[in-house]
Amino acid sequence: GVIRVKSMKYHGEGVDHKETLFNVGEKLYFTAEIEEHDSATNTWKPYVADDLQVELVMLDPWVRTTLVKGQGNKYHAEFY
């Protein structure tokens, strides 16, 4: 099947907007809306999985964590 990321947001703890720079050890929040295309109805539906991951990269991967399923098509993670 085909999946897409409909939206993606991230921010530091205590900040409600997207930042471009983060420090090592700072708590971060990541949320993504992920959908799967249903070719039978030609519509996008929530993608359901329990093994999605997000990876933050500088020069080498320094954070890789599993995303937690939320409501509908939303997945999230909290990490340092």
UniProtKB/TrEMBL annotation:
InterPro entries: DDOST_48_kDa_subunit, OST48_MD. Residues 15-78 form the OST48 middle domain. GO terms for biological process: protein N-linked glycosylation via asparagine. GO terms for cellular component: oligosaccharyltransferase complex. It comes from the Eukaryota. PANTHER family: DOLICHYL-DIPHOSPHOOLIGOSACCHARIDE--PROTEIN GLYCOSYLTRANSFERASE 48 KDA SUBUNIT (PTHR10830). This is OST48 middle domain-containing protein. It comes from Nymphaea colorata (pocket water lily).
